[in-house]
Write a structure and sequence with these properties.
This protein is mainly β and 78 residues long. It has one domain. Helix content is 0%, strand content 36%. The protein has no helices and 11 strands. The strands form 3 sheets. The protein has a 4-stranded parallel sheet, with no helix packed on it. It has a 4-stranded parallel sheet with strand order 2-5-8-11, with no helix packed on it. The chain is globular and about 30 Å long. It starts with 6 loop residues before the first strand and ends with a strand. The relative contact order is 0.23.
Length: 78
């Protein structure tokens, strides 16, 4: 069984991530990304080989599948 790991945070910019978020293998987070929720709700599940562009907000109980690109400035709520 091969272990795939890897999280890349680009540019050393600020990234805010709720500690209960599930982040898959080989994920690339650009600067100014926020992954969280309001009022203690469930947080996002992010699949493998995902690129999240600059200034993206992933809010609430969202599932982002494998091999997905989320464009810059997006607000993902479902």
């Amino acid at each position: 069984m091969k272990a795939d790991y890897g999280l890349y945070i680009g540019y050393g910019g600020p990234v805010i991530c709720d500690p209960t978020a599930a982040i898959g293998n080989n994920v690339n987070l650009s600067q100014f990304v926020t992954i969280g929720s309001n009022e203690g709700r469930k947080v996002a599940v992010i699949g493998d080989n995902v690129y999240i562009g600059p200034s993206v907000s992933v809010i609430e109980d969202v599932t982002i599948g494998d091999n997905v690109t989320v464009g810059a400035g997006s607000v993902v709520t479902r």
